[in-house]
Specification:
The complex is a heterodimer of chains A (268) and B (271). Chain A has a six-stranded mixed beta sheet with strand order 6-7-8-3-9-10, with helices on both faces. A four-stranded antiparallel beta sheet of chain A has the order 2-1-4-5, with helices on one face. Chain A is globular. Chain A is α/β, with parallel strands linked by helices. Chain A has seven helices and ten strands. Chain A has two domains: 179 residues, Rossmann fold, CATH 3.40.50.300; 73 residues, no CATH class. Chain B is mainly alpha-helical and 271 residues long. Chain B has a single domain, classed as MetI-like fold (Orthogonal Bundle), CATH 1.10.3720.10. Helices cover 80% and strands 0% of the residues of chain B. The longest helix of chain B is centred in the last third of the chain and has 38 residues. The two termini of chain B are 38 Å apart. Classes of the chains: A alpha/beta (268), B mainly alpha (271). The interface between A and B is medium-sized, with 36 and 27 residues. Bound molecules: adenosine-5'-triphosphate (ATP) and magnesium ion (MG). The site of magnesium ion has 4 residues of chain A, from helix 1.
C-alpha cells in the first residue's frame, strides 16, 4: 500500500466560513491526511469540530478555501458518482418509491431500466429491504430510510464512501444491525476489493467496532491518528481486548470525558 | 365525470350550502320583482333554453349565439391561458429560486405586473392584440404566470438543499435535477397554486371578454346587461359557476394523484 498513491489525499486543506454577522470561522484548519484504498476510516470529534465540512469538501460539494484534495489521483473539482455520500439529514427523495431512489444514480449514468432494477434489487436485498421496494419513503422508519440511503450509494458503485453520522439518530439495536449490513457491503466491493470509507461519528464504541483507523478531529484539526488492528469480525467482546480498552481511554480523553496523563498528539 | 361524483360525495357540507343559497334566493324572489331577481327555477329553464341556441342573443347582434358555444369559447381561452401562464410562471419561479441574479432581474418586473388592476391593463391589451382571443388569453395568462411564479419560487426555495446535494453526489446533472428533484418536489405546492389560479381565471377571462371581445360568456353578460336581461345574465353566471366547480374537482383529483407521495394520512410501517 505504501508505494501506491493513496485513494484519498487531503493536503493542507482549510475551510473558512464567514458568518452572517461578519465573523470568520475556521471550520477546517490546515488538514493533511492520506487514506489508502479499502481502508475504513472513522472521523471522531465533538460537535462543531468540522467533520461535516471536511466530508463535504471530499465530496466536492464545497471548495476548500486553501489546499487540495485528490481522489484516485484526480483533483476534486465537484461532486462525482465515484464519491458517494450518505448525509447526516435524511436525503432519500420522498417523491420516489424506494426502488426508484436506489436506481437514481444508475439512471443518471444512463444504465438501462432492467439492468439498474436488477442492481437496485440486489442492494435492497442486502440491506434487508427487498419487501418494501414499492413503498413510499414516508411509509418507512428512520432506520429503514438510512438503509435505503446506504443501498443507494453502494448501488451507484462509488469507490469512496462518505458517511456523515449515518446512524446518529438510531437506537442501539438498529445501529448494531446496520453496522453488520454496512460491513457486509464494505467487504463486497464492486470489483471484489474493499471500498474506501470515511465514516463520521460521535460514538466511540461505534468507531472502535467499525474502523481500521480513527482520526480524532478537534477545532478543525486532526489531533490524533490511531490504527485499530483488532481482528474482524468484531463484536462486543472485541471491545474488551486490552488494546481496544487502551484505545477507548485515549479516545475518551480526547473528547474530554477522561483525564489521561499522556495523550500523544500528532504534530501537524 | 368521476371527479364531479367524487367531489359531490366528499363534500356534503358544500351541497348543503348550495341548497341553502337556493332557498335564500327563492325567498328573495318573493320580495323583489322578477325583472330584478328572477327565481332559480326560471333561471334554470332559461339556461336549458339558451344552451344550444339563443335566438334572443343573435337578436342583439351576437354571431353564433348559444350558452354552450360561448362557454366552450371561454373555457378554451381559460385552459390555454392557464397552460401558457403556468408554463412561464413555473419555469421562471424555479429558475429564480436557484439564481440570485435572475431573481433580482425578474422579481420586480413580474411583481409589478401582477399588481396592475385588470381594468387598467385590459385596454392596452385590446390595443396591442385586438379584440380576438389573443387579448383575453394573454391578459389571463399574465396573472396566472405571476401567481405560479410566486408559488413555484416559494416551493423551490423551501426545499432542503440536502436533496440537490445528494442528487449531485449521485451523478445528476442540472437537467436531471430539474426533472427528478425540483419539479417533483415542488409539484404539490405548484398544483395548489394552479387550482387557485384556475379559480381566479374564470372571473378574469369573463372580465376580459366583457371589456372587449366578440364571443364568450363575458360577452353575453355584457350584451344582456345592456338589455337589463337579469334572467339571462344569471343563467350565464350559473353555467360559468358550474363549469368552474367541475374543473376545480378535476384539478383536485389530479393533485391527489400527482402528490400521492406527500399525502399525510398514512398507512403504518410495512414491516
Ligand atoms: N455554511 C456555514 N456557514 C458558516 N459557518 C458554518 C457553515 N457550515 C459550518 N459552519 C461552522 O463550521 C464549524 C464546523 O461545522 P461542521 O458542520 O463541519 O461540524 P461537525 O463536526 O460536522 O459537527 P456535528 O458533529 O455537530 O455535525 C461550526 O462551527 C459551524 O458553525
Ligand atoms: Mg456534522
Amino acid at each position: 500500500m505504501s508505494d501506491a498513491a493513496p485513494m484519498v489525499l487531503v493536503s493542507r486543506v482549510s475551510q473558512t466560513f464567514r458568518r452572517a454577522d461578519g465573523q470568520k470561522v475556521r471550520a477546517v484548519d490546515d488538514v493533511s491526511v492520506q487514506i489508502p484504498e479499502g481502508q475504513f476510516v472513522c472521523l471522531l470529534g465533538p460537535s462543531g469540530c468540522g467533520k461535516t465540512t471536511l466530508l463535504q469538501m471530499v465530496a466536492g460539494l464545497l471548495a476548500p478555501t486553501q489546499g487540495e484534495i485528490r481522489v484516485a489521483g484526480q483533483c476534486v473539482r465537484g461532486p462525482a458518482p465515484e464519491r458517494g455520500m450518505v448525509f447526516q439529514k435524511d436525503s432519500v427523495f420522498p417523491w420516489m418509491r424506494v426502488i426508484d431512489n436506489v436506481e437514481f444514480g444508475l439512471k443518471c449514468r444512463g444504465v438501462a431500466k432492467p439492468e439498474r432494477q436488477a442492481i437496485a434489487r440486489r442492494y435492497l436485498a442486502m440491506v434487508g429491504l427487498a419487501a418494501v421496494e414499492r413503498a413510499w419513503p414516508r411509509e418507512l422508519s428512520g432506520g429503514m430510510l438510512k438503509r435505503v440511503a446506504i443501498a443507494t450509494v453502494f448501488a451507484n458503485g462509488a469507490a469512496v464512501l462518505l458517511l456523515d453520522e449515518p446512524f446518529g439518530a438510531l437506537d442501539y439495536v438498529t445501529k448494531r444491525q446496520l453496522h453488520d449490513v454496512l460491513l457486509t457491503l464494505w467487504g463486497a466491493g464492486a470489483s471484489g476489493g474493499r471500498r474506501t470509507v470515511l465514516f463520521v461519528t460521535h460514538d466511540v464504541d461505534e468507531a472502535l467496532l467499525l474502523a481500521d483507523r480513527i482520526l480524532v478531529v478537534h477545532s478543525g484539526r486532526i489531533v490524533d491518528d490511531m490504527a485499530i488492528p483488532a481482528p474482524r469480525p468484531r463484536n462486543s467482546d472485541s471491545l474488551l481486548l486490552p488494546a481496544m480498552v487502551a484505545n477507548k481511554h485515549r479516545l475518551l480523553a480526547h473528547l474530554g470525558l477522561e483525564v489521561a496523563p499522556a495523550v500523544p498528539v500528532l504534530a501537524q | 365525470m368521476a371527479g364531479a361524483m367524487r367531489w359531490a360525495r366528499f363534500d356534503p357540507l358544500g351541497m348543503l350550502g348550495i341548497m341553502a343559497m337556493l332557498l335564500i334566493w327563492a325567498a328573495m324572489t318573493r320580495v323583489l320583482p322578477p325583472s330584478s331577481l328572477p327565481g332559480p327555477l326560471s333561471v334554470g329553464l332559461r339556461l336549458g333554453q339558451d344552451f344550444f341556441a339563443a335566438p334572443e342573443l343573435s337578436f342583439y347582434g351576437l354571431p353564433d349565439a348559444s350558452l354552450s358555444g360561448s362557454m366552450i369559447y371561454t373555457a378554451e381561452n381559460v385552459l390555454v391561458a392557464l397552460g401558457v401562464g403556468a408554463g412561464v410562471g413555473i419555469a421562471a419561479g424555479l429558475l429564480t429560486a436557484r439564481s440570485a441574479t435572475l431573481r433580482a432581474l425578474i422579481d420586480p418586473v413580474l411583481m409589478t405586473a401582477g399588481t396592475i388592476p385588470i381594468l387598467v391593463l385590459a385596454p392596452f391589451f385590446l390595443i396591442w392584440f385586438g379584440v380576438g382571443r389573443a387579448s383575453s388569453v394573454l391578459l389571463v395568462a399574465l396573472y396566472v404566470s405571476v401567481m405560479l411564479y410566486v408559488f413555484a419560487q416559494r416551493a423551490a426555495s423551501g426545499l432542503d438543499p440536502v436533496f440537490e446535494q445528494s442528487a449531485r453526489t449521485l451523478g445528476a446533472d442540472r437537467q436531471r435535477i430539474l426533472i427528478d428533484v425540483l419539479l417533483p418536489s415542488t409539484i404539490p405546492q405548484i398544483l395548489g397554486g394552479i387550482r387557485i389560479a384556475l379559480a381566479g381565471c374564470w372571473g378574469l377571462e369573463a372580465i376580459a371578454e366583457l371589456l372587449g371581445a366578440q364571443y364568450g360568456v363575458g360577452k353575453i353578460i355584457e350584451v344582456l346587461a345592456g338589455a337589463t336581461d337579469v334572467q339571462g345574465i344569471l343563467a350565464a353566471l350559473v353555467l360559468l359557476g358550474v363549469v368552474a366547480v367541475l374543473f376545480d374537482a378535476g384539478a383536485a383529483l389530479a393533485t391527489r394523484r400527482l402528490a400521492r407521495w406527500s399525502v399525510t394520512t398514512q398507512i403504518g410501517h410495512e414491516r
